[in-house]
Amino acid sequence: MNILIVDDHPLFRHALIQAVRYSFPQAQIHETAAVNEFYERLESGSEPDLVLLDLNLPGASGFSALVHVRAQYPAIPIIVVSAHEEASIIQRSIAHGASGYIPKSAHPSHIGEAIRHVLDGEIWLPPNMSGNLSFDPRKADETALAERIQSLTPQQFRVLMMVAEGLLNKQIAYELEVCEATIKAHVTAIFRKLGVQNRTQAVLAINALDIEEKRIK
């Protein structure tokens, strides 16, 4: 079994690796710390059997990485592993395509349990939280936005995340090692797919998938 852990905290990645190995000693475990590394590994053609994904990652905004990867690689089951324990965050994660949700405060034994359930095609939720989720339909605006983001190509998604970080076209071109005209073409296509007219509107759109602003107080 090939498992990919995506988390930007080295100490937690190490702890998660140990927890996975305890339940699956023969598993091949790989790790990445950022969204770009995550995409590069997936695009290399070696798809993992399972992904353990943190929601707070460099190069992503809230649920954006989950939404995009779920669209590009629908066959790969994803378990969100996050410090957020609010019922609303868990609900939105499952609604956006996660097959399970493990709070970082969970007991290590839950890691193996969650992986087994998800690989069997089931949804796994924290035992003490599943009864508190109502799974009401998502708000129409967030659902529509998720669908528009799913229509972006991997490169367009990278460009959108860089736009959200405030980078100019020439800076994005330098980072991605392409010409500025290519970035301009990507930005134009992104605006069309998102239904926005400028960079400010694009940033506001992607921020709708953020986590912090919708947390339960």
Automatic annotation (TrEMBL):
All copies of the Response regulatory domain together span: 2-119
Which molecular function term from Gene Ontology is one that the record holds?
DNA binding
* Every HTH luxR-type domain range: 145-210
Alphabetic keyword roster = DNA-binding, Phosphoprotein
**Residue positions of the PTM 4-aspartylphosphate?**
D54
UniProt xrefs under Gene3D superfamilies: 3.40.50.2300
Task: Please give the Pfam families that the UniProt record associates with this protein.
Answer: GerE, Response_reg
| Gene Ontology BP, a term | regulation of DNA-templated transcription
- Give the PANTHER family listed for this entry: HTH-TYPE TRANSCRIPTIONAL REGULATOR YHJB-RELATED (PTHR45566)
* Protein name in the entry: Uncharacterized protein
Species = Acinetobacter rudis CIP 110305
